[in-house]
Task: structure prediction
Amino acid sequence: MRLAVATAGRVLRAVRWYVTSMMGDNAYEVYVAHQRRAHPGVEPMGERAFWRERTDEQDRNPQGRCC
Result:
C-alpha cells in the first residue's frame, strides 16, 4: 500500500510539473533560477515586471499560439 501511495504521489507531481511547464506557469521561477546561475550578484526583475515584459515580447513577436 505504501508503495502505491508513493508511486501515485510521484506520478501526480510529474503531471503537475508537465502541465505547469507546458502552460508557462513556472516561467518566472525558471527565469529567477537562470538569473541567479548566469548573473550572480544581479537582482532579477520582480515578478510583475517579468510577466509584463513577457506579455509585451509575445505581442511584439507573435508565434504559434491559440489566441
